[in-house]
Amino acid sequence: MSRAFVGREITRPEGLEQRFADYQYNLLFPDLKALSDATEWHEYDALNYEIGALRAHSEIQGYVITEFTDLNWEANGLLDMWRHPKAFGEALSRLQQDDLLILRGDKRNYRAGETVDADVYVRTTATVT
Description:
The protein is α+β, with helices and mostly antiparallel strands. The chain has helices spanning about 15-20, 30-55, 90-95, and strands spanning about 100-105, 120-125. The longest helix is centred in the middle third of the chain and has 24 residues, at about 30-55. The protein is globular.
């Protein structure tokens, strides 16, 4: 499909393989599939953080994920542009469960042996009688 978003040639699907080679992404990813999977898992990390942040507050009773599918120039949908599930589909479904354990550390990355301090939130929809 030959179309560019807002006239920006970089958004055209044609030539993706050549751009992958020209920008030497093969130094980071063995192939386009690996780049695609890494991009999808990066999206999952962001969704995981956002959903956890929302669910950590009991006064927030719901949320909406607004992007259903990807487009040529956007890769933040729940499905790819051909409406296939993304690599993180099963992991994302676990974030939607009634019960969720949320950990929030004071930073994102730690070294082996380093002590981790984290706030712990438990969200459940179960009623206690």
